[in-house]
Amino acid sequence: MSGERGKMSTEKQQKGGMLMDEVSFAWFTGVQVMKKLAISAIDGYRSLFSVEDDLRLQFYRDKGIRHTERGNYAQAAPLLARVLEQRPDDFEILFHLGFALLKTERVAEGTPLMERAATMDPSDPRVCSVLGMAYIQAEKYKEAVTMLQKALVTNPENFNLHYRLGLAQDKLRNFDAALEA
Length: 181
Prior knowledge:
- This protein is rod-shaped.
- The longest helix is centred in the first third of the chain and has 68 residues, at 2-69.
- It has helices at residues 2-69, 73-86, 91-103, 107-120, 125-137, 141-154, 159-171, 175-180.
- Helix 4 packs antiparallel against helix 5 (125-137) and helix 5 (125-137) runs antiparallel to helix 6.
- 86% of the residues lie in helices and 0% in strands.
- The protein has 181 residues and is mainly alpha-helical.
- The termini are far apart.
């Protein structure tokens, strides 16, 4: 009898051990499912807010450009500077931020931005004319002449460009060229 009791006890232990294995497996599976759900939720959250970041950048870009176009240069500069950090090769941001900085007499900050824009599109008449005038402010008359001449190719009737070109030529003591401008 004691042999049967020992056998029954061993069977109970085996069944109990199997039951515990099943419970452990169920627990392990549940934890793995929860991990996958958490990872999916985190990935979804990130993708949702990366779209928000893109929308935010587009909003500030458009708002900054509108401020520049309306002559609100002091309001435009911080918005566009914020966007430029994320989009350093955006031609329009470089142009409008450079222009806003130049208009708020921050020539040392605005000129390099205009120069970067000029390397991206060397024939853009807006960049050439603004950069030419910035060079005059910085007393870089030779560079101003080059830029203003480029601007006049696409806008030969612009009195202001002719006047600024004549001014730069005069400062370089090219008096005949100054009179022609």
